[in-house]
Design a protein that fits this description.
The complex is a heterodimer. Chain A is of the alpha+beta class. Chain A folds into three domains: about 1-195, no CATH class; about 200-275, Single alpha-helices involved in coiled-coils or other helix-helix interfaces (Up-down Bundle); about 290-410, Histidine kinase-like ATPase, C-terminal domain (Heat Shock Protein 90, 2-Layer Sandwich). Helix content of chain A is about 65%, strand content about 10%. In chain A, a hairpin with a 2-residue loop joins strand 4 (about 390-400) and strand 5. In chain A, helix 5 packs across helix 9 and helix 6 packs antiparallel against helix 9. The radius of gyration of chain A is 37 Å and the shape is elongated. Helix content of chain B is about 55%, strand content about 10%. Chain B is built from eleven helices and five strands, in the order βαβαβαβαβααααααα. Chain B has helices at about 15-25, 40-50, 65-75, 95-100, 115-125, 135-145, 150-160, 160-170, 175-185, 190-200, 205-215; strands at about 5-10, 30-35, 55-60, 85-90, 105-110. A five-stranded parallel β-sheet of chain B has the order 2-1-3-4-5, sandwiched between helices. The chains are: A alpha+beta, B alpha/beta. Chains A and B meet through helix 10 and helix 11 of A and helix 1 of B.
């Protein structure tokens, strides 16, 4: 029993909570001092009975609204959440991210105020009570002490009777700190934890991610299923016509080979998508929303880009996947122009209509023959990704210009 | 079997599938492909001008899907109307049940063996019906449960004799006539007669439509004591 009480008052957790409270007191100090200065400066405190405690309390009352206002700064939750987590042993989840919503900021401000207030009280008690108690304990030994500490005057007549009070004052910070610490630990999760809105947003994010994965899985199942049945039918037909129509058999084998290869490429791509999803992407994936920057960069690189958007504001409402893919296509196209044709005028048309996005990027063919873009991540990769979105993609010369064209249906994409 | 070859139209938006089916079907001496279509609307058009005996109809196609194309063909092309075989990649495609409801005569999986495909075409061309595919049963059950049961069909099913109801129940489980004969201890000819009576009394064209009637009336799936 006694040991438990000692642990409660002096254990590691109690000591850390005391540090946390003193920290709160330290945070209060500048506000408090400023308020005191104002009180003395305006002469208000002179009219008040010259009780130091009264003016201290008055300064506190004046300082608290400013503490609360400061607490509304989003970054306060980062600092206070971190401190509470390390020092205060809170009873539930505490966030140390900037408070973004108004509700979260109000809660963080309430916490900041309570932390400063409780901290101020505990710090004050810790600073004032033990020395006072010591004076009372020493009083029987030296009556002169009462001359130095005027407040001890009443105790001089019967100093020994005040000894218990002196002991109590020395120990007073312990229960006060323990009680305040336990209280803060209990309210920390309420004021610094995720708000219901935070939890909802988190759950929604998770649900959205799951739905997107399910959609990707279903699309994959669909397209690979179709590819495999096409392969099966072609193989069956080829088997039946082996003797009679070798030309058909040769065509069927080529079709089987291509279909199988495309299906595997698509699997590869989608697996990549699913893997990319697992950790949060470090940088936001660029989409057509970033088109202006891309065009500006390309112009800066020397290609004179002529941009046509139809309708002008259409790209904003595009499904996310389509918008991202379109950006990558345009990026790839610009890159190819610069690599193969050099600094030539490029014309880019983006059209939105009939439930699909049409991209046409063209440039005059320069003296050198345009070559295939190098590596598997070039045009081929683009074609594969467009196919995943059920779109079509072509690249090639037409009427003396090199055209890169894509059509992506908008339906069924997040 | 008639002396002239069975004329087939193939509707599928994937050219590879179309070409493959073409080669498989056309290689048979008694079958000939007279036309192809890449969309549902094209399919309706081809059927109108070519008057084939059998249509192989993909379910998912642009502009008009296989379900609507089937319904339109059966409504608009008569004397005789062609037999429609729904062709699908996935047995679990919920559209397949809709296509059967729309009047399709049977159902063909793209992964079926070539022999089974041509066998199915011959079967429906003859006027016989294909067995109701097992995988569709669960789909039919859920779909039928979501709807209110068709009261008219319900009365018709109620008018079947107990023996006929038993035969209907066995048809819905996908059994062929010979298997029904084994289960019931009836002779194959008697079973045939019972099946014919069930179809007549329900006012449906074939086994497939009888199974759909059984689901839509609530005869199958509701677990009513006297019914199933």
């Amino acid at each position: 029993m006694a040991r438990r009480l000692t642990r409660r008052l002096l254990g590691r957790r109690a000591r850390l909570r005391w540090v946390h409270l003193v920290l709160g007191g330290a945070l209060l100090t500048p506000f408090h001092l400023a308020a005191l200065t104002v009180l003395t400066g305006t002469g208000l405190s002179r009219d008040i009975p010259a009780e130091p405690l009264t003016s201290q309390l008055l300064a506190l009352a004046l300082a608290l609204p400013f503490v609360a206002l400061t607490g509304l700064v989003p970054l306060v939750r980062t600092l206070e959440g971190g401190a509470a987590r390390v020092l205060c042993a809170p009873t539930g989840e505490v966030l140390s991210l900037p408070a973004t919503s108004a509700a979260a900021r109000r809660r963080a401000a309430a916490w900041f105020t309570l932390h400063a207030l409780a901290g101020g009280v505990v710090a004050g008690v810790s600073l004032a009570a033990p020395p006072g108690g010591l004076v009372l304990l020493l009083l029987p030994l030296s009556a002169n002490l009462a001359d130095v500490f005027g407040w001890a005057e009443p105790a001089t007549s019967l100093p020994l009777a005040w000894t218990p009070l002196g002991l109590a004052l020395i120990l007073l910070p312990l229960p006060v700190s323990a009680a305040a610490g336990a209280w803060l630990a209990r309210i920390a999760p309420i004021l610094l934890g995720p708000t219901p809105a935070d939890r909802l947003a988190l759950a929604e994010q998770r649900a959205e991610r799951l739905a997107e994965r399910a959609r990707i899985a279903r699309d994959l199942h669909d397209s690979v299923g179709h590819a495999l049945s096409a392969v099966g039918i072609q193989a069956a037909a080829a088997g039946r016509l082996l003797d009679r129509d070798p030309a058909f058999v040769a065509r069927a084998l080529t079709a089987i080979e291509d279909t199988a290869r495309d299906a595997v490429a698509e699997l590869d791509h989608v697996l990549g998508l699913l893997r990319e999803e697992t950790p949060e992407p470090a940088a936001p994936v660029p989409s057509l929303a970033n088109l202006a920057e891309l065009v500006a960069r390309t112009r800066a690189a020397g290609a004179d880009v002529d941009l046509h958007l139809d309708p002008a504001d259409g790209v904003a409402a595009l499904p996310r996947l389509v918008s991202r893919e379109a950006y990558r296509i345009v990026q790839e196209g610009f890159g190819n122009v610069l690599r193969h044709a050099g600094e030539v005028p490029v014309s880019l048309h983006l059209r939105l209509g009939r439930g699909e996005l049409t991209i046409d990027l063209s440039n005059p063919i320069a003296g050198t023959r345009p070559t295939r873009s190098g590596g598997g991540r070039g045009l081929r990769g683009t074609a594969e990704r467009v196919a995943v979105l059920r779109g079509t993609f072509t690249a090639g010369p037409r009427d003396g210009r090199w055209h890169l064209s894509a059509r992506i249906p908008l339906e069924g994409h997040p | 079997m008639s002396t002239h070859p069975t004329r087939v139209v193939i509707a599928d938006d994937e050219s590879l599938v179309r070409a493959g089916l073409y080669a498989i079907v056309d290689a048979e001496p008694d079958l000939t492909v007279v036309g192809e279509a890449a969309t549902g609307a094209q399919a309706v058009e081809r059927v109108r001008e070519l008057r084939p005996d059998v249509v192989l109809m993909d379910v998912r196609m642009p502009d008009l899907n296989g379900i609507e194309a089937t319904a339109r063909i059966l409504r608009e092309v008569s004397d005789p109307s062609p037999r429609v075989l729904v062709v699908t990649t996935f047995e679990n495609d919920e559209y397949v049940y809709d296509a059967l409801r729309a009047g399709a005569h049977g159902f063909l999986l793209k992964r079926a063996r070539a022999d089974d495909m041509v066998h199915a075409i011959r079967t429906v061309a003859r006027g016989d019906s294909l067995l109701f595919p097992a995988a569709i049963r669960d789909l039919a059950l859920t779909r039928a449960r979501e709807r209110t049961h068709n009261a008219e069909l319900r009365t018709r099913v109620a008018r079947l004799t107990p023996r006929e109801q038993e035969v209907l129940r066995l048809i819905t489980t996908g059994l062929a006539n010979t298997e029904i004969a084994e289960r019931t201890g009836l002779g194959p000819e008697t079973v045939k007669t019972h099946v014919a009576r069930v179809l007549t009394k329900l006012g449906v064209r074939d086994r497939t439509q009888a199974v759909i009637a059984a689901y839509e009336s609530g005869f199958t799936g509701t677990g009513l004591g006297g019914w199933a």
